[in-house]
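User: For a benchmark we're assembling, each entry needs the component sequences followed by a predicted structure for the full assembly. Here are entry 17's components. Please fill in the structure.
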Amino acid sequence: GAGVSQTPSNKVTEKGKYVELRCDPISGHTALYWYRQSLGQGPEFLIYFQGTGAADDSGLPNDRFFAVRPEGSVSTLKIQRTERGDSAVYLCASAPTSASTDTQYFGPGTRLTVL
Amino acid sequence: DQQVKQNSPSLSVQEGRISILNCDYTNSMFDYFLWYKKYPAEGPTFLISISSIKDKNEDGRFTVFLNKSAKHLSLHIVPSQPGDSAVYFCAARGTSYDKVIFGPGTSLSVIP
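Assistant: Structure for entry 17:
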């Protein structure tokens, strides 16, 4: 069965450019999460969707970061005016619901490098 | 301020011996704790969890112990196998939906 997929696997961009990172969750999973993982750190929560709506976006570092999930399935994380400090692995995870006992299934991540 | 701490960045264990990975947390509102395992170039995969109403949960070679008064949990792997070599993340969340907070991870190497 298909797991969580993320595209691209690697993205190299120049400072100031705009990037979009895509996440395809497991079919039927209503909860979707974005995390950012910097070197030597654990995943850091960015935003959580329940269905189409962002239920918690408190982890987005600033207004250059935005995420959408228009049909309750695929999600796109958008970063404007990228900075070198945005370089990290961006992880997406999905879960059947948002219940606290639900396991989150992670994708392989997108490694973003801002030059 | 890190709410979930894993103070050992790395750990080496001989194959067949016990691996003990430790985790401390500061937020007393955490009610559910998870361990994830991560291989290079892959996303973390769920390993085992424990609710705050329990002090132990066992699944095969993996056992998680929770000491709420000390705000400490540990993951025991016995016997350790070379395939267990990976980064292990401790994570925690509150009772109702709340964001999952991850620790920085411990890199485990199991030496054949």
